[in-house]
Amino acid sequence: MSRTLVAYFSASGYTAAKAKLIAEAAEADIYEIKPAQPYTADDLDWHNKQSRSSVEMADLSFRPAIAEPVPDVSGYDTIFVGFPIWWYKAPTIINTFLESADFSGKTIILFATSGGSRFGDTVKYLKNSVSDTAVIKEGRILTSAQGYVISAWLKELGIIG
What we know:
The mean pLDDT is about 95. By secondary structure, the protein is α/β, with parallel strands linked by helices. It contains five helices and five strands.
């Protein structure tokens, strides 16, 4: 088994594309965090305060269900977790993912896609979803990153040679 896992949630495909580039370059396993109830375009309408995503992000204790079981993470040292940035944070389904397995002693490196937002308080909000021995690192916003940029980043991190 690979010592690196790439787990990602992608609402519109952008994050999925970056996750696949990371997994390929790092020769890592990959897992898609799929919501039990898929998001529709109306659900993702951030202009509408009553849309599903707006309601979920207004209540950070909300935990959308995941469609498929979370993989056994015990064999991994490093876990990349990717998502689109919503309101300067990770969507709450990322908390669901992190609370669904034991990440003790793991290094979690975040990556995201965004229309212009930065990570904001993402690490702070995710920290409570893992044990104190898990390390969450703010990674990079990879919205427009090409494969060579991702490979260079993975080299900086010591993931690839």
